[in-house]
Amino acid sequence: MTTLGSAPTAAPAAHxxxxxxxxxxxxxxxRHRLRWWEPLPWILALAFYFTFPNYLGFGTELLITIxxxxxxxxxxxxxxxxxxxxxxxxxxxxYTVGLLAFHGLWNEPISSLMLAAxxxxxxxxxxxxxxxxxxxLTLLMLTLCTMALLEEGANMAHDLTGGFxxxxxxxxxxxxxxxxxxxxxxxxxYLYALAVLLVCFVYVxxxxxxxxxxxxxxxxxxxxxxxAVGSPxxxxxxxxxxxxxxxxxxxGGLWAQTNAYVNLGSLGLDRAATILIVLILGGHGRLYGAxxxxxxxxxxxxxxxxxxxxxxxxxxxxALVIIALFARNGILGVAAALGRRLxxxxxxx
Amino acid sequence: xxKKFVLASAVVAATGMAQAQEVKVGVVLPYTGIxxxxxxxxxxxxxxxxKLNADKVKPYTMKLIKRDAKNPGGADAKVAVQELLxxxxxxxxxxxxxxxxxxxxxxxxxxxxxLSVLMNAGTAHITNMAPQYVRTAFSMWHSGYAxxxxxxxxxxxxTAVVGYxxxxxxxxxxxxxxxxxxxxxxxVIDEIPMGGAGAVPDMTPFFQRAKDKKPDVFYxxxxxxxxxxxxxxxxxxxxxxxxxxxxxxxxxxxxxxxxQAMGPAAVGLITMHHxxxxxxxxxxxxxxxxxxxxxxxxxxxxxxxxGGYDGMAAIVHAAQAxxxxxxxxxxxxxxxxWKFASPRGPIMIDPQTRDIVMxxxxxxxxxxxxxxxxxxxxxxxxxxxxCKAQKIxxxxxx
Lengths: 349, 398
What we know:
The structure holds two protein chains of two kinds. Chain A has 15 helices and no strands. By secondary structure, chain A is mainly α. Chain A has a domain at 37-269. Mean pLDDT of chain A is 87; it is low at 1-14. Chain B contains 14 helices and 14 strands. In chain B, helix 2 (36-52) crosses helix 12, helix 6 (140-153) packs parallel to helix 7 and helix 12 packs across helix 13. Chain B folds into two domains: 2-138 and 282-354, 3-Layer(aba) Sandwich (Rossmann fold), CATH 3.40.50.2300; 141-273 and 359-395, Response regulator (Rossmann fold, 3-Layer(aba) Sandwich). The chains are: A mainly alpha, B alpha/beta. The A-B interface holds A 54-55, 57-58, 61, 152, 155-156, 158, 163-166, 168-169, 182-186, 255, 259-261, 263-266, 268, 270-271, 302, 305-306, 309-310, 312-313 and B 29, 31-32, 36, 66-68, 70-75, 78-79, 82-83, 85-87, 99-100, 103-104, 106-108, 110-112, 123, 129, 166-168, 171, 196-197.
């Protein structure tokens, strides 16, 4: 955290030299450009589809985890909103899709996802207006409480939501009326999740490199200064929280559709804590941290659990302790530091 | 060259034979997290069956491929089931502790079309969700309905208050008890939700409310473990026994592994269940003795272990009936109407519903040699899942 007086490293050269050839201005003008390695994750994801056709169920879960982690990155990593209740929005999205499909109201996949985004966004804006008046631990507790309230609500409205047992066997029609969601071979689910992730990612990437995204980083780094320069801090935070909630809602909706199932597990503390670990593991505030963290976490837990079904958490826990001790900024943070030391690439904030 | 060829064909023949002899059983249980204890019971039950009945398994070998279901969220269990079917190409699926996981897995089980043995998951209607599901566990209705009947007939109760933990098994148990009790002439005068399954609430206000209604019996469903211990203690502390109110419930509240921790307040507690470790039959004596020898004298099997034991017996029976091929239709057909002498007494798989038919025992907790034990004071033979028998709610076939 920088103090009020010192200039943040990434701040535009607003004072001092306004020259266009200032190195900071160059860095700023270039930072949104596509880098050579950015298509890599998508090529890998497609390669995975063809190389491991038997792992697509696992792959689909992984893609959804990435999308969910990405939504959290927007709120936590960029805007610095400390939340332990992000699964609330995942759950709202999942239950929106689930309830509409289960009660026979609406089940077309893509429009259902949009509805999930809208409903989760509404919950986000309403809770955000109240919660974002607080900061730090208070905010952490309040986000947790919001999630707990929603979870208990879903539990109590048993007739509507199926309670603890959930809503089973959701009738999800084929995508575009043609590509069927086969429960055993998740080919359609995988490509569908990949496409949704790509769309959401492009949106988030554009957003964080826009002036709006820059102001979020400013709020995270130095909220007093942002107030002082006349930035509408609360409005920005609420907007960011809402967008983040809507994307989490899309992830939840996607989860409900690909599993054809919703239950309380979609909005519990378990999920909220896991996604926080995933993001911190990968590196927050870095866009690709969600990808790296989700892959590392899912691959570790999945394959350790296959080898040692009773003791896999020990291995995972050790890995997390090591990363927490030696890689404070997550895997990508370590990679960036290594890169700097070797002189490849410029430091990106 | 010739030598190589002989060797190669011998290897091919051997692997070919091994494939015919080996039955791959995919086991999905929550080996970690809050369900790890239950998974261990079921896992040990399965292993113990194979160990004690090696002669019945021959000439086939059961290869257990164990996967962690992790949590009741559904998704992880679903991925595990999917990979067992598509990667490991298992012949049979088995396990399921949490009902939500069995419910979430139903579409995959139906699509994968392999015999799937439910060893715990007790929500009544699950067996309707996929035609490959066979249950060797129980449904909440087995004990609840039977307890309702016994409370009215054997305990001569006219009125009852029901206290239940507010989650599906609790609601199932309440519905089952109420149906059984009122069908036998009793009347439920109050239904008290007593908090969720996640944390143990202070039971005093709920029990005081029950006491004020002055029922003949107070039927309680709470999850095994700390909930049950708290309920028993509160019952003692409020002097409900002296007020003439009997505490009754399904056997979940007197789970064998938790019984000793309840202390002397549990004496007099009356439960209805299909199994307790103190059952006096030859099979159970052999089972409990083998268990203690294998896993230590302090360790005791409970109803979950028996679910695993009987489930493995069912799988072995299907393997013998299909000559190790485990053809799904034939395996299912061989289990419909299958009878077995289980540690819980004689059991059968109902040919119509693929659910278990078994005895229910009315037991009283007594102090014996300084330890708590369960004494059978009544028995109902061949109890079916009444929810499906009476086609109640989601139990009605679609």
